[in-house]
Specification:
- This protein has 212 residues and is α/β, with parallel strands linked by helices.
- The chain has a single domain, classed as 3-Layer(aba) Sandwich (Rossmann fold).
- 27% of the residues lie in helices and 30% in strands.
- The chain contains six helices and eleven strands.
- An eight-stranded mixed sheet has the order 6-7-5-4-8-9-11-10. A three-stranded antiparallel sheet has the order 1-2-3, with no helix packed on it.
- Helix 1 packs across helix 2 and helix 5 crosses helix 6.
- The radius of gyration is 16 Å and the shape is globular.
- It starts with a strand and ends with a strand.
- The structure holds S-adenosylmethionine.
- The site of S-adenosylmethionine has 19 residues, from helix 2 and strand 5.
- S-adenosylmethionine binds next to helix 2 and strand 5.
């Protein structure tokens, strides 16, 4: 069902046979995650808010979570990651970044529990379908990292974007690698202010949206 693939920056990604899609850009998995989620999402949110509550839609390999954890910040961070199909140990433990300290630990954390993994950094991995996920928490940073609309159209529908909008704080930031015109129109239609930013190598553009 899953296969590990090498991407152009030397880091691994996963290919899902079920979705016939890769978890990251084949032009560079770590490079894409760093560019889209860390540089254009996390760092901006850290400069804007005293504490962060992050929602990730599609935990997958946990690369975004791991890079977020490695980022130096003295701000309290709560990280909620939703995943419908958790990867098995034989996949995550063989990824190129699995050798880095702390990566396997993140995968071994129990599901559906809040765990403080280091001072002020709390992780909750939730094994659920985002379409059914409900939360009382208000997020000020959202990593929208589902498979592309061509593969998984149901997660990019206006109703889903509206649901995310209502889970977000004012001035909250949503980042995604997807830069399709339809997504940007849909984000605007639910009330987001939408920016098109340069994408990581191999991809022309990405999207950042702010909840006013
Ligand atoms: C593009 S990949 C994830 C990339 C991930 N952020 C990473 O760094 O590896 C999309 C992820 O969304 C998950 N997914 C698919 N449908 C979902 C759903 N309805 N709810 C939650 N997660 C879903 C997939 O299993 C997959 O792990």
């Amino acid at each position: 069902m899953f296969e590990i693939l090498k991407t152009k920056d030397g880091s691994d990604t996963v290919f899902s046979k079920q979705y016939n899609a890769t978890y990251h850009s084949i032009h560079g998995a770590v490079r894409e995650s760093n560019h889209v989620f860390i540089e254009n999402g996390l760092r901006v949110a850290i400069s804007k808010f005293d504490s962060l509550s992050i929602l990730e839609i599609g935990l997958g390999t946990a690369l975004n979570l791991f890079l977020t954890l490695k980022e130096l910040s003295n701000k309290p961070i709560r990280y909620t990651a939703i995943e419908k199909f958790p990867l098995s140990e034989d996949i995550y433990s063989n990824l190129s970044y699995a050798k880095e300290e702390g990566f396997i630990h993140v995968h071994q954390l129990p599901w559906n529990e809040k765990i403080e993994v280091k001072d002020g950094f709390v992780i909750e991995k939730i094994n659920a379908d985002f379409l059914e996920f409900k939360s009382k928490e208000i997020y000020n940073l959202v990593y929208l990292d589902a498979f592309a609309p061509t593969t998984q159209n149901e997660l990019w529908q206006v109703e889903v974007l509206q649901k995310i909008f209502h889970m977000m704080a004012h001035q909250g930031i949503l980042v995604t690698y997807c830069a399709k015109g339809e997504l940007k129109r849909n984000l605007k239609s639910v009330g987001f202010i939408v920016e098109t930013l340069a994408g990581p190598p191999g991809k022309r553009e990405m999207t950042r949206a702010i909840r006013p």
